Amino acid sequence: MLSVDTPLSIQVHPSKDQARQLHAKDPKNFPDSNHKPEVVVALSEFEVLSGFKEISAIIHTIGLFPELRLLLGQEKSKEFQQLLDGDRSGLHKILERFYATDAATLQRIVAMTHDRLERFPTDEKAHKLFLYLVSRGFEADPGVFVALFLEHQVLKPGEAMFTPDRVLHAYLKGDAIECMANSDNVVRAGLTPKHQDIAVLLEVVDWSGAAKSCFYPVSSKSGPTTVVTPAAEFSLQIYHDIDGSLGRLGPLGAPELLVLLEGSARTSHNERMEIGDGFFIPADSSGDSINCTDAMIVRVSIPH
Hints:
alpha+beta, 2 domains, 7-stranded antiparallel β-sheet, Phosphomannose Isomerase, domain 2, 6-stranded antiparallel β-sheet, Jelly Rolls, 9 helices
């Protein structure tokens, strides 16, 4: 479970093929050979960054921050012109320039931008995001500008987001439950003092825009909301407003985990569940049930 006050790092997870190569080359920073697709379910309003904006939106964002020209050069620079022509390789080169900027220069440009927006406030979403990130202590972090190029979304309680391999993402604010594949492979891209390998980052990220996060609204139909993802490692269902028995659980030949998010529940072992409690069902279970009152439950299992 996540309770985010200070933004978590902008990061990306390698694909399985990339993970195997990175683990063989650098097992200290890439301790396994697996990928790490993940899904979050919002418990409150949950702010996220996930995936690059469309090129037209990125060009618009650059126009909102004239100070970026100090990092990018003039509008007629090769990188900016590539963006105007719709060539996404220009995006790769622009971020590379962000990361190559020394901390003192970056801090000076961030301070200039901050002062302008404080003196002349606007309702632009990108301006508000920039000011929020600076207020959380990232005055000399290139992630402040990288974040502006990513899609900024707010999940409502009960909504979910799936993030596949190779997609830059960050969790900014709010409470959520997170489920992911079993891996510790993380490539950080900003908003963090932790280790960042920019050369690996630029190789791992999908610059084509083909890999995208998927969003799942709260279902208006009866029954659970099933978060269907391409991930083979987990399956997730969200049950809303349950009164009575959730039904017989297992056996699936794989373990399950249920987490109570609202209401109350009691297991078939006569154990009372409080909000935030989990109920683990082993793979060899002969079947269990949960009796619920006004309950919201997240159920995670392994597809079979």
